[in-house]
Amino acid sequence: MKKKIIIVVSLILVIVLAIVLILVLNKKEEPVKTDEETKVIEEIKLIVDDKELIVKLEKNLTSDALLEKLDSGDITIDLEEYGGFEKVGDLGFKLPRADKYLKTSPGDVILYNGNQITIHYGTNTWNYTKIGKITNVNEEELKEVLGEGNVTIRITK
């Protein structure tokens, strides 16, 4: 009697394993969607006078926190000229940091010290958290938009 039970249980296990194997082998893989297809790419806008700068955001906690803050409304910041390569301004609040040693390039939008935004129109190397990259203007156009001296920007979705 025990042998019959063992044989029946073994047969049932073999059948179940065969069904699982068939299902796994016949499962169709869904194609991986690109960012454009899923609309995962998050962008924000920096408004300087009447010019709109599009910033493609990095996928990090800093950008997520900035997007969350923008849910409450636009952010206006006065940026000051600094070092001949960037404009920098106080956010008025802190964002999470993940600083690493970076070499910036024109168009980089950076978080500095957790509470300051910098827009680079030149290069620099320092410990920063990258927020994103301005994508719709070149280096010369960016310098023209930012102008000389201080400038006020509005950050919006």
What are its keywords?
alpha+beta; Cyclophilin; eight-stranded antiparallel β-barrel
Fold and architecture overview:
This protein is α+β, with helices and mostly antiparallel strands. It has one domain (35-156): Cyclophilin (Beta Barrel). The chain contains 4 helices and 9 strands, in the order ααββαββββββαβ. Strands 1-2-8-6-7-4-3-9 form an 8-stranded antiparallel barrel. The radius of gyration is 26 Å and the shape is rod-shaped. It starts with a helix and ends with a strand. Mean pLDDT is 88; it is low at 30-40.
Average predicted confidence as pLDDT: 88
Could you tell me the CATH topology label: Cyclophilin
Count of domain modules: 1
H/E topology pattern? HHEEHEEEEEEHE
Backbone CA Rg: 26 Å
Summarize the helices and strands and which ones pair or pack.
Blueprint lengths: L1 H25 L8 H4 L4 E6 L2 E7 L3 H10 L4 E8 L3 E5 L9 E4 L4 E5 L3 E5 L4 E10 L4 H8 L4 E6 L1
Antiparallel strand pairs: 1-2, 1-9, 2-8, 3-4, 3-9, 4-7, 5-8, 6-7, 6-8
Task: Give a short overview.
By secondary structure, the chain is α+β, with helices and mostly antiparallel strands. Helices cover 30% and strands 36% of the residues. β1 and β2 (51-57) form a beta hairpin.
